[in-house]
Design a protein that fits this description.
The protein is of the alpha/beta class. The chain has 11 helices and 28 strands. A hairpin with a 4-residue loop joins β5 and β6. Bound molecules: alpha-L-arabinofuranose. Pfam families: Alpha-L-AF_C (PF06964), ASD1_dom (PF22848).
């Protein structure tokens, strides 16, 4: 099978923002406790941060980290997580039906972000709390001193303000599973009032309003429109969430489903711009895709995904990712890159243990899941100007399954090309990087890339992630069962790149170029 890609140095989608490569730490299962934080672990530093996990986080290279939830934030009293640890209350967490010991809170998270070299992104509780708790948290974190909340932070040992810029106004407030779920009108009002007060405390904040928690929510579209009618002037971002699934055990459709993220992004852009047009406003909201991943084996109903008895840090949502999952995940990476003009923040949900690229054993080692690799390659190699790829590829028919994944919930989709591709030009450093997914499970793909207006100096690196067993996984016993290998057979001549992509493969090809 043959495919042709054409790119032109001067035909660009947009520049990637560093925040496009973010991830997410929620108080959920063993993401915090036994994940990033495990005092007493042989690898723990003096603050209880696992050094082995920090080393993997640096290799993964997320740029911004969302915290503390997720569903958890809709019942969280941030005051419980600050001050002397021995005085912090233990609470029932109704999001994940567990006991929250509060031995890790906002200040520990900020210290961890500094150690991991990532920007913090905080979410405020617009479920059980509201604007008052939100503005107090901003004052606690960002005000230099001389007020009750800022002096409280200083008395807790953090003299300098945390200077947190990016804030999420609640989480998935459209979802009935959320503590104090709201209608669009109710949420639009509380988001507006919270935004106003938070920015009065610190005008430098950038705020994201909650969009729909999924594209298949019945309220999708109407929700965004009504929420933005209220808070358009007060926010910079609207959020999107997507979890790809293979409930139907239909690998070709699963690999195609990442393309629904493209549709979702384009639809939300249209709605945000329609709200702007009604106001004759030149303001353009940006998109924060602040939860995305593959998630289905450990999803399902609340009863099935929680553990009775209110445990601390239960082993829940510990999705083990296969080779096939990594391919679908790679498709999602390409969707994000190809919308770099409007998606200016995104968070892989999540970071450690709970639906995560990094796994740990409590008291034991840490290792990389299959999805670790496409993310690390995207974050380390995908910064720059995303060029518009013209893809000529054979296509295939597929279906879309909503999260229930049954035949009754099957919808037809337009045919999708076997090849999915993004091209990023780093003009400062002089690299062109191609991210390439061959969705054919049977055929190799003979690829030709025509690069216009670019002087290719040679190959820098070429790697593939593929395996004849799409069910293969990494584990404690076999941590490197799936890992990238060298992509052979890449040729560069006369501005043309040619390569042979294996069936069911994720690939990167990086060329050296003249800088600027
Ligand atoms: O990431 C897991 C959960 O998925 C988050 O807590 C919630 O926001 C979403 O439904």
């Amino acid at each position: 099978m043959k495919a042709q890609v054409t790119i032109d140095r001067d035909v660009a989608i947009g520049d990637t923002h560093d925040r496009l490569f973010g991830a997410f730490v929620e108080h959920l299962g063993r993401c915090v406790y036994g994940g990033i934080f495990e005092p007493g672990h042989p690898e723990a530093d003096e603050k209880g941060f696992r050094r082995d996990v920090l080393a993997l986080v640096k290799e993964l290279a997320p740029t911004i980290m969302r915290y503390p939830g997720g569903n958890f934030v809709s019942g969280y009293n941030w005051e419980d997580g600050v001050g002397p640890v021995e005085q912090r209350p233990r609470r029932l967490d109704l999001a994940w039906m567990s006991t929250e010991p509060n031995t890790f809170g906002t200040n520990e998270f900020i210290d961890w972000c500094r150690a991991a070299d990532v920007e913090p992104m905080l979410a405020v509780n617009l479920g059980t709390r509201g604007a008052d708790a939100a503005r107090n948290l901003v004052e606690y974190c960002n005000h230099p001193g001389g007020t009750a909340w800022s002096d409280l932070r200083r008395s807790h040992g953090w003299e300098k303000p945390h200077d947190i810029k990016f804030w999420c106004l609640g989480n998935e407030v459209d979802g009935p599973w959320q503590m104090e779920h709201k209608t669009a009108r109710e949420y639009g009002r509380v988001a507006t009032e919270s935004a106003k007060m938070m920015k009065w405390v610190d005008p430098s904040l950038e705020l994201a309003a909650c969009g729909s928690s999924a594209r298949n929510m019945p309220t999708f579209g109407a929700w965004e429109r009504e929420v933005l009618e209220h808070c358009f002037e007060h926010v910079e971002f609207i959020s999107l969430h997507t979890y790809l699934n293979n409930y139907a055990d239909d690998m070709p459709s699963f690999l195609a489903s990442a393309d629904l993220m493209d549709s979702f992004i384009e639809e939300v852009v249209s709605i945000a711009d329609a709200v702007a047009a009604e106001r004759r406003s030149s303001k353009r909201l940006m998109l924060s895709f602040d939860e995305w991943n593959v998630w289905y084996r450990t999803r399902g109903k609340k009863e099935g995904r929680t553990v009775p008895g209110w445990p601390v840090a239960p082993k829940i949502l510990e999705e083990i990712y296969t080779m096939g999952d990594a391919l679908a995940f790679g498709g999602a990476c390409i969707s994000l890159l190809n919308h770099a003009d409007r998606v200016k923040a995104a968070c892989l949900a999540q970071l450690v243990n709970a639906i995560a690229p990094i796994m740990t054993e409590t008291g034991g080692p840490a290792w990389r899941q299959t999805i670790f690799y496409p993310f690390a390659q995207m974050s380390n190699l995908g910064r720059g100007r995303v060029l518009r790829s013209r893809v000529e590829s054979p296509t295939y028919a597929t279906s879309y399954y909503d999260p229930r994944g049954t035949q009754e919930h099957r919808f037809s989709m337009p045919e999708v090309p076997y090849l999915k591709c993004a091209a990023v030009h780093d003009r400062d450093e002089g690299f062109l990087t191609l991210f390439l997914l061959n969705r054919s499970l049977d055929d190799v793909l003979d690829l030709r890339v025509d690069t216009r207006g670019m002087e290719l100096l040679g190959l820098d690196r070429a790697e593939q992630l593929c395996d004849s067993d799409l069910a293969a996984v990494n584990s404690r016993e076999q941590p490197e069962r799936i890992k990238p290998s060298i992509l052979e057979q890449v040729r560069i001549a006369d501005g043309q790149i040619s390569a042979v992509l294996q069936p069911g493969s994720w690939n990167i090809i990086r060329m050296k170029m003249l800088a600027a």
